[in-house]
Automatic annotation (TrEMBL):
Organism, as annotated: Rhodovulum visakhapatnamense
Descriptive protein name: CRISPR-associated Cas2 family protein
Gene3D superfamilies: 3.30.70.240
InterPro entries named in the record: CRISPR-assoc_prot_Cas2_sub
Alphabetical list of Pfam families matching this protein: Cas_Cas2CT1978
Length: 97
């Protein structure tokens, strides 16, 4: 079960309350879980997507370890341009779609 991180910016307080019930808030708007299962991660992100589609305020970034992805990382975003991780001759870069 890999480390999962969610970063929030300019979102309603309901996100903070929900996220602190399932993750640690290590800095304002930065939440981590050292061993969140894929099922829990998907359910948490589903709640975030539902709220964001209704409220359309702020942004959220979800990052977790995914051995099948470039750099073993996967990124999902809400309220920001979609991003992907690319390998540029061994250097990992974030590309906006």
């Amino acid at each position: 079960m890999p480390l999962t991180m969610i970063v929030t910016r300019d979102v309603e307080m309901r996100y903070r309350g929900f996220l602190t019930s399932v993750m640690l808030e290590i800095a304002p708007g930065v939440y981590v879980s050292p061993d969140m299962s894929a099922g829990v991660r998907q359910r948490v992100w589903s709640v975030m997507k539902d709220w964001w589609s209704q409220l359309r305020r702020g942004s959220l970034v979800l990052v977790w370890r995914d051995p099948a992805s470039v750099g073993n990382l996967r990124i999902e975003t809400l309220g920001e341009p979609p991003k992907t991780i690319v390998d540029a001759d061994g250097l990992l870069l974030v590309k906006r779609k």
